Amino acid sequence: MSDSIEKQKKDLSGLNSDYASKYGFHDPVNYFHKGAKGLSHELVEMISKMKKEPQWMNDIRHQALDIYLSKPMPQWANTKMLSEIDYENIYYFMKPVDENSTDWNDVPEYIKKTFDRLGIPEAEQKFLGGVTAQYESEVVYHSMREDLKKQGIIFLGMDDGLKEHEEIVKKYFGTVIPSTDNKFAALNTSVWSGGSFIYVPPGIEVKVPLQAYFRINAENMGQFERTLIIADKGSRVHYIEGCTAPVYSTDSLHSAVVEVIALEGAYIRYTTIQNWSRNIFNLVTKRATAHKNATIEWVDGNLGSRLSMKYPCIQLVGEGARGEILSVAFAGQDQHQDAGAKVIHAAPNTSSRITSKSISKDNGRASYRGLAKIHKNAVNSKISVECDALLIGENARSDTYPTMEIDCEQVRVEHEARVSKVAEEQLFYLTSRGLTEDDARLLIVNGFMEPFTKELPLEYAVELNRLIELEMEGSVG
Amino acid sequence: MTDKKALFEFKDIHVRVEDKEVVSGVSLSINAGETHAIMGPNGSGKSSLSNALMGHPAYEITKGEIYLAGQNLMEMGADERSRAGLFLAFQYPLAIPGVTVANFLRTALQSHRGKEADMSDFRKLLKAEMKSLSIDEVFATRYLNEGFSGGEKKRIEILQMAILNPKMAVLDETDSGLDIDALKTVSNGIIRYHNENNAILLVTHYQRILNYVKPDFVHVMMNGKIVKSGGPEIALKLEELGYEWVEDEVNHKAGV
User: Fold this and answer.
1) A432: contact with B, CB 8 A cutoff
2) Which of A200, A266, A440, A453 could bridge A435 with an S-S bond, Cβ 3.0-4.6 Å?
3) Under 8 Å CB-to-CB from B114, ≥6 apart: which residues?
4) Pick from B15, B1, B28: which is nearest to B220 by CA?
């Protein structure tokens, strides 16, 4: 902690300058394929043809585009910010390389440099079981440890997943999040490219995390990765994703769809550290289905982007299924983190816990938008929801929009919401021990985040703390 | 008192909280090696004085001077006063969720020693001091004051003092809420810290802690002023006769 404070003081002069040098750089790229701006059936056809997809996927794409075009924009969250997106000015598909690589040496130099700078190969060597690196629309690098392959674990880019395991993809694709779910899910389904595909065979425990790293490089880029994770009966897996992008003056769009399925007795943890630059609109649909006695855990950290709309969801459809959503949102200057969580109990003896923490600073705004639903048959189910908001400064804003739909009487539901300010008394207590006000405030914020941070692998916890220090730099209380 | 230069000195301190003056012209001079006690009934202004000396922003010093080891504290924020060697043990220490006792103390100590300081001895120091104060080791990894009993909080305050080793320790109602065993442990901690180079100012309503931490001087505070000063015998008399005794004496002097 104190070491990191020390580091902060030494190294960093301001958030934006550091984001720009650390993540905000961009590469001049000769794209293998760079389609025209804007969205059309022609584009969808071109993507599907280029990927040599089966007809059923081609059909799904075209249907999804019609659904996308027919659905109105959401009239909630932050309609003002949403209206800033210029959909005609976005590249919906950009292919940096012809084929993705399994050998780091085959990755084009400029992309390799990018991921080197982001520390991906290093992390892979240190503690990961497999890595997928996506650049714009395509997975450019993918590797997995041999011993995991031998266990029958499948971890591929989504396009390769479709090619090599069509039957599994066909069985599950769009079953958790159909195109009709919402406008952005439809958009993603029509132009999806990249993302991760994971299948863990029955009874297999993936002992090391699998990771994907998503990078947007181009300006006015739309990234629409599609991730599908299936943990078969009694298996266990931890998947981690991280995201960054360059700092541009015009906006890019990231709209992913993530479908996660835990079959009977399986366990899946899905960890995200979203640190998009401030010009990214991050509109993501993430949903998991937990079957009998299965466990799903979303660990979701949102620091970057201009506007994020993201509500990881768990459907508990089998008896005894368990779900946990632990999320943190940090909204700094001009940011809106509209984050939240949804749990749907559709079977008896299911339990879920939502812990949502948000920090708003300067004129930043963090919203918690939650749904807790218990169906009639979900007797003896338990939900606990805890929302904790911390405000820093007079203009920071926090809102809570919890929805409870309880159609069953024999259940236990707990909901707790708190909003606190970094209190003068707390600051005084810490400064009276010699900490400067900045250090004291940082300590309080890190403490506030601790229940989240301690759930992360060490490397990520360290990185998150560092990012928060950057965000806190020079804040006025 | 000798004529050596005082370690800690404040002169004619006036404190305002919101629109009310709660301390009206208090002065005290404390030499290294001494223990002073300020006693007073509830609402006498003694806690306000302590907070103001430490630099609490809600306790505005409208007039007065404060010096510690020759340094003028008036222009300093609380963090600078702390690093200059002033310490305040709080009457009601706050909880800081998610921040462990060890992490907090390490950060505080580093603030004192400077960012580049070698902290390799910290664990050892913490362990030893916790042992002396009969604080279970698990407290090092617990979140600061979160769910601590009153007695545990007070021990942790004294632990902070022991680790930071200030020149001047102001202890605000450190005895309140302690059972007799805890009182002894905490008092022993204070006595162990005390030496000829530092000084203690005990701020207390009751006399009982003074049975363990023996003061050289006792000052009685009422209505924002020190109305009586003397030796330890004052504390005993207060214990016996209550604050009315001083009140009567003051009124008598004033000719009321």
Assistant:
1) yes
2) A440
3) none
4) B28
Of A434, A437, A447, the CB nearest to B108: A434
- Alpha-carbon distance of B151 to B160, in angstroms, equals 14
Chain B interface includes A6 (CB < 8 A): yes
Q: Choosing among A428, A441, A449, A453, which should be mutated to test the B contact, i.e. which has the most B CBs within 10 A?
A: A428
Q: Do A432 and B81 touch (CB under 8 A)?
A: yes
- Token look-up 């050289």 returns B216
For chain A, which residues make up each domain, given as ranges? 1-28+426-477, 31-310
Does B132 contact chain A (CB < 8 Å)?
no
**Predicted local confidence at residue A297, as pLDDT:** 97
Query: Where do the structural domains in chain B lie, given as residue ranges?
Result: 8-90+167-254
- Out of B79, B87, B90, closest to residue A435 by CB: B79
Mutation pick from B56, B68, B81, B111 vs chain A, by most beta carbons of A within 10 Å, is: B111
Residue spans of chain B under pLDDT 50? 1-3
**Cβ contacts of residue A192 below 8 Å, gap of 6+?**
A61, A158, A224, A225, A226, A257
What is the per-residue pLDDT for A127?
66
pLDDT at site A19: 67
The total number of residues shown for chain B amounts to 256
Chain-chain contact of A434 with B57 (C-beta, under 8 angstroms): no
Q: Is A9 on the interface with B (CB under 8 A)?
A: yes
Strand partners, B37: B202, B218
pLDDT tens per residue across span A389-423: 999 888 999 999 999 999 998 999 998 888 877 77
* Minimal CA separation from B113 to chain A, in Å: 10
Q: Which residues of chain A have pLDDT under 50?
A: 1-17, 475-477
Pull the structure tokens for residue A255. Answer: 């709209």
Q: What is the pLDDT of residues A234-281, one digit of tens each?
A: 999 999 988 776 766 677 899 999 999 999 999 999 999 888 888 889
CATH superfamily of this structure's domain B8-90+167-254? P-loop containing nucleotide triphosphate hydrolases (3.40.50.300)
Q: Which pLDDT belongs to residue A104?
A: 73
Q: Following DSSP, what letter does each residue of A320-374 receive, concatenated?
A: T-EEEEEEEEEE-TT-EEEEEEEEEE-STT-EEEEEEEEEEETT-EEEEEEEEEE
Pairwise CB contact (< 8 Å): B99 & A450: yes
